[in-house]
Structure formats: C-alpha cells, structure tokens
Amino acid sequence: MTICLDTGFTLEKGPNQGLKHCDFALNCGQSCSIKYSLLATSSVSGVTIRSVLNAIQGHLPYRVWLPYDYNTPSMFWITSIQQIITVIFCTIVNVGTETLVFGLFLQTCAQFEIFESRLRKLVMNKTNKLMKNEVRYQKYLSPSSNKEETISKYIYHHLEIYKYAKTVNFIFNQVLFVQFFGSILILCTSVYYLSTHSTLSETATLIVYTICMFVQIYVYCWSGNEVILKSMSVGDTIYCMNWPSLSVNERKELLMIMLRST
C-alpha cells in the first residue's frame, strides 16, 4: 500500500527523493504487519488447538447460549466448527484493520519527512544562489511572482498532509474508538481470568493472547504518537534552516506553517 500525495513538485536534484520516503514507510509497514500477523497467528493457533481439544472431549469451544439443542453429534460438531471458523475470521479481519490504519499513519509520517526534505532543499538552493552572487541577493529582495508560486506549493503540500490526516481520522475515528475500548475490556477480562485459572494449557494460551492485546494497543498509541512527533518536528526543522535569507513574505508563510505544526 503506497499513498503519496501529488502536489505538483519537480525537484531539481533527487527526483526520487519522495519515493524513497514512501518506500521506507511501505517497507516499515510491511515488516511490522508481518511481525504482527505472526504474533496473531500464534495466538489464534493456540486458541484453535485448545478449542479442538475441548470439542474432542465433548465440550463446545466457547460457552454460548444457543436457541437449539446441540447435544446431537451433528449439531455439536457444526456448532464447534462454526465457533472455530468465526474466531479465525475475526482474527484475520482484526489484523487487516490494524495494519491498514498503521500503514496510513506511517504514510502520514512519510509525507511530513518529504515536506521537510523539500523545504530544506528550497532554502539551501536559495542560500547557495545568494552566496554566489551578491547582485542576485538585491534582485531577490524585490517581489517575484515565481518565488511566491514556489513557496505556495510547499504550503499547499503541508495543507494537503493535514487534509489527508483529517480524512483518515474522520473515517476511522469511531471504528478505532470501539475497537480500542473493546480491546481494553478484553485485556482486563483476560488478565483477571489468567489470575484465577492455573491450568497449564489455558495459562499458555491466555499469555500469548494477552501479549497480542498489549501489542494491539501499543501499535495504535505508537503510530499516533509518531504522527504527532513528525508534525511537531516540522517547526523545529524550519527554525534550524537559514530562514533569514528568505524574503519577509516567505518568512511569514513559514511562520504560519510553524504555528500550524505545533
């Protein structure tokens, strides 16, 4: 999954610079998704094995109320298989949702890095031109529509990043709230159940499942915190640039970006 915002930029050097950041986010997202999928697979495998053992012993994998009599062999095995398949399917959906949101957050971080790199390159190019010829510096002080158009593209890119982040937040806000609340509730229940049952098979299964729940909450918190840190780092990056060489209007525009980033 690669999502790179098209802002109409054409860099003089390093045209694949933006793609490098997107590829890094893609590779990082794929690596984390594979690791999380393996962890979820190990958890659901343990739960499935325990469910099969319970079914062999004549017990349903999970205690539920059913509107029919499941004591007959055919209905018992149909119900058991349905419960096992449901757990596996829910695990796949859960992993897919979490890795999708995680990848979207990483793409937001990549866009902030692309923006910082392009803005840093802009200031460096302007500084190099001023150092080569002092006469150009005098010309640069006069208003120029071309320069205003250039800096406006960077502002547009920054606005597009925030628009993209708000869109992701609007789409997944309620879904993540319900899932996050449910994960915390399940985590508390699992820890309580783990403290009251000392069976070796149940303990091993619940330990792996509890670790998965902790990782799930950690993924949301870590990725969201990374987006906040990347957004705040834009202001620090602008402050560390050679911004005194820019015109007054461009300084004001950069100041607006810094205020938006805090």
TrEMBL record:
Keywords associated with the record: Cell membrane, Membrane, Olfaction, Receptor, Sensory transduction, Transducer, Transmembrane, Transmembrane helix
Taxonomic lineage of the native organism: Eukaryota, Metazoa, Ecdysozoa, Arthropoda, Hexapoda
Subcellular location: Cell membrane
Family annotation (Pfam families): 7tm_6 (PF02949)
Superkingdom as given in the UniProt entry: Eukaryota
GO molecular function: odorant binding; olfactory receptor activity
InterPro entries reported in the protein's UniProt record: 7tm6_olfct_rcpt (IPR004117)
Protein name per Swiss-Prot or TrEMBL: Odorant receptor 71a
GO biological process, one term: signal transduction
Primary subcellular site in the record, as a coarse category: membrane
Coiled-coil residue windows: none
Signal peptide: none
Keyword Transmembrane helix: yes
Cell membrane keyword on record: yes
Gene Ontology terms: cellular component: plasma membrane
TM ranges: 170-194, 206-223
Membrane topology: Multi-pass membrane protein
